[in-house]
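User: structure tokens for this one?
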Amino acid sequence: MTTRTLIKSLAAATDGPVSVSGWVETVRDQKKVQFVVLRDETGAVQLVSPRSFDEEGAATATEVSEAISALAQGTFVTVTGELKHDERVKLGGVEIKVASIDVAAPAIAETPIADDSGIDKRMDWRFLDLRVPKNALIFRIQTTLLHAWRSYWYENDFVEIFTPKLMASASESKAELFRIDYFEGSAYLAQSPQFFKQMAQPAGFGRVFEVGPAFRADPSFTSRHATEFTSVDAEISWIRSHEDVMTMHEELLVRGFQAVKDKHGDEIKALFDIDLQVPTAPFPRIPLAEAKEIVASRGYEVPRADDDMDPEGERQIAAHVAETFGHEFVFLTDYAASIRPFYHMRHADDETLTNSYDLIFNGVEISTGAQREHRVDVLTANAVEKGLDPEELSGYLDFFRYGVPAHGGFGMGLARVLMLMLRLPNLRETTYLFRGPTRLEP
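Assistant:
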């Protein structure tokens, strides 16, 4: 039996017997010759099968010709035949003359989605939608990006952790918790690994990271929110300020973008028409108060009652940074304590500000980072100020009662990074299986 050859390897293979497996993309059943475009996870190849004719010139049916005529788009097959290099063949400069076809699983002839189907319909049939090369490439890019990030962490002595997703109490806002039955009581799905990655600091781990699921009971229907998402988190000890966290964060992103460009740059250009840019470090840094002044000078007043920035303000400051610095990223720093969690450290000389940042990429926030408050008395007072009960936080506060170094970190949405990297309009495109307020299937 001939060993399966991946389609991407055919160009380098010698002419002769070959076996390929994949799904049928198109069939051209012509009078004198039959053509099939077969696609696998690595590419597409043209299959060719000349028809046989009797002495009177009439086409005669063969096992191969009948099998090809019966093929529906999406049918999975294994084909054996003769590989031939031919520069006239537009699809990769090779073709395979079919000797036999083995149908692994036939497909229904009429597919439920088309090229112009809306995103909700495509999500209903996500396994078919992901056969499209452009959509499949997203997750190869994701794999390369995560591998590069893990390589960075590994080279810099980070420890990978896997934190629980079932929690006894909130890690962030009680308003965004999914509550579930848990034996005789209740539990909550984790909104982030915040408390547990901080626990690794008094444990003496020094530097940790996690890539894992997070859950937010947020009834948002925007293009950039999900109720379940993949969170990329890192936390480091012995920092001097949030500046150390930002430096680590930008180094990580530069490493990831460089790896994606090196491996997929040509494909991204061909399928997304994007010349992927690797960001240069350091990224621009702008205090939030200054950013609001810049936005106002551009003719936009942020219409919020609190001290935060809004999405349009983020787009405006990103446009300013692109025009001024030629950069796609910007750190907005020094957020007001009134809009930050109790565990963000406050400025030594201004209690109203925090050692924190949001990272904006192409006009959208992708991450929040900060130096954490590690002094248990200050941490407790901040929690009380925020209306939290220290008794409910006693397990968390215990982390800080037995010695802990100054530390900080960030949480970042993986799908958002990919969405903005590829200039896609919706987070659903870069999520393998999206979950939102009205979607629990497939």
